[in-house]
Structures are given as structure tokens and as C-alpha cells.
Amino acid sequence: MTDVLVLGATGSTGGELVRLLETKGARALRATHRPARNANDVQLDLSSGAGVREAFARTRRSFLMCPPGFTNQDVLLGRAIDAAREARHERVVLMSAMGADADPTAPMRKAELALERSGLAFAILRPNWFMQNFHTFWLHSIRTLGRIQLPVGSAKGSFIDTRDTAACAAELLVGAAPLGKAYDLTGPQALDHTTVAAILSRISGRDIQYEDITPEAARAGLLAAGLPADYAEFLLLILSFFRAGYSARTTDNVQLLTGRAPTTFERYAQDHRQAWA
Questions:
Q1: Residue 37: what pLDDT?
Q2: Residue 1's pLDDT band (boundaries 50, 70, 90)?
Q3: Is pTM beyond 0.90 here?
Q4: Sign of the alpha-carbon dihedral angle for 102, 139, 150, 216
Q5: In the chain, what are the domains?
Q6: Which own/partner contact pairs does 191-195 have at CB distance under 8 Å and 24+ positions apart?
């Protein structure tokens, strides 16, 4: 049986990846920063390095992602890449973000380059903004105000379902998908947030509107939600890229890697309608 170490195993992408690996006959070793509860859990902390080498030594394949809330992705992921190289992993899949390769000095791009130069058999997944943000990170204003409040104007984004990202990762980790390259992942079409709000309204039965807010208002909201100041600034930066139109591109890489079309926003909304209803 193939063992795969999955970072972020309790999140929406990692949790789905664990499920998919098991359906393919592989066993997922779930990384957690909390004490392990069973034999398939392993405790590690990328921010301190505690338990990282020991966790990677238990498997020969791994899925890497940076925990949310950190802007020094190159440092944290560098620890994971070093540990994978030391443990001689056969395959390593890194989840980055679409557009990370635009700036060679950006921390996430530095992490990508470290993996590319590591000598490991690798693949990089660069998903666009997740559909799941609408029932997690952006949910509070939808529930309390009936508003999606973001500083992105009328720009469009080809949002992707995290389940599709996980499916692509599973094919790269235990399937026959080609390694040695990066894949930009998107949904099937680009939508603006007014259209997103209309879809959520129709499917949930609630009146949900999109409100374009200023970066200053967005900053205040992020800080009030408890985000570290540097991470709030990072989010404002990438939201400004969205506003500039850099998130509208679509690719066929979900189809290429999984053999099926990516999930539509309508399908996502149907599956999670209770979150807004």
C-alpha cells in the first residue's frame, strides 16, 4: 500500500484528498499540529519545525501546502521540502496559487523554485481562488448582512472547487498524471461577484448582493476578524491582482489531470446551499 503524507489534512482540500487517496487504495498519513489521535495522524509544526523530519520519514510521497495565516511560505515549505528530500520521497506535490510564478521574489514562488531544484520528482498545483471561500472566509458578511463585501470591483474570477484541486493532487500522487511541471487550475468559466451573488441568492433562497468596498474597509474587516496585520496586507495585495483582472483566465488542466470537466459554480452552490440558507 502506498503511504502519502498530507499536510493540511483537516482543511477542505486536504480532507478531500485523504478521502480520494483511500478510494484509490492508498493510505494517507494526516498531518496535524495537534496531538495525534490515531495511527494515521502525525503531529508536526511547520512554523517551528517540530516533528517535520519524523513525519516525512514515515512515508515516501507527500502533499505540501502552507498553513493559512503565514506570509513566509518559503521558510515553512522549505522545511517540508528539505525533509522530503532527506526521506527520499518518490513524489511530492505542492499546492501553490495561480499567479505565484509572476514574481520570482515572492515567498510562494521561492518555495516553488526550491522544490523544482530539489532533485525530487514533483508537481506544482496552482489553483485559482476557491469557491469554498464563499462558505468559509467570506461567510460572515453574507450571513449577517446579506452581502459579499470585497474590494474587487467588477473583475471576474475562474473560481475552482477545492474538490477538483484534491482530485488533481490524487492523480499526481498515486495516478499516472505527468510529473515535473506546474498546473494552473481553474473552474470552467470566469464570473464576477455580482453573478456569484445572484447564483447564491437563487439557490439559497436568500437575497444576497455583492458590495464593492474599499481596501481600507477590507483591511479593517480582516483585522477585526483577528488576522495578523502582515497576512491582512498579503490578502489585500492578492485581492488587488484579482481587481486588475489576473484571475479571469481559464485552463483545461482539471480535465487533463482527472479526465472530467471542472465543477461549475452552480454545482458547488447546490452542494453547500445550507451554509447560506
A1: 86
A2: low
A3: yes
A4: negative
A5: 3-129+160-185+249-260 (3.40.50.720)
A6: 191/156, 191/157, 191/158, 191/159, 191/265, 192/154, 192/155, 192/156, 192/157, 193/148, 193/150, 193/152, 194/154
